[in-house]
Amino acid sequence: MEKENRCETFAFHLNLLLEVEEMKKYPFTKLVIEKSLTRKEYIESLQLLEILNERYEEDVANGLINHGDLMIHFAGMLCYKLPIEETLEALEHQGLYPELTSLLHRLHYK
To answer: Within 13 Å and on the Cβ side, how many CA atoms surround 10?
Structure first.
C-alpha cells in the first residue's frame, strides 16, 4: 500500500512540476514526460534527430533542394508515443535542431 501511495505522490508531484511556468520553455521535454517515454525511447528520439540533422546538412551542402525523404524518415521512425505534429511544434519552440525542425514542420503541412 505504501509503495502505491508513493507512486501516486510522485505522479502528483510530477504533474505539478509540469504546470510550472518555467516548463513552457521546454515543450519537448514536457511532451516526453506527458507521453511517458522511457529513457531508451527518449535517447532514440534524440538520435533520430541527430541522424536527420546530419543528413539535412549533407543534402544542403550537396545542393539538394528536395528534402521530402527526411520527413518520411522522421514520421516513420519517431517513437509511436509522440504525435508528429505536436512533436514538431515542441521541438521548434524548444529550439532543438532549429533548421531541421522548421523544414520538417513546413514539409508536414505541404
So the answer is: 7
Distance CA 104, CA 100 (A): 6
Q: CB within 8 A of 32, min separation 6: which ones?
A: 42, 45, 82
> For residue 54, how many other CB atoms are within 10 A of its CB?
11
Alpha helices in 1-110 (DSSP H): 2-18, 27-34, 39-61, 68-77, 84-94, 98-108
8 A C-beta contact, residue 36 and residue 81: yes
pTM: 0.86
Kindly give the parts of the chain with pLDDT less than 50: 1
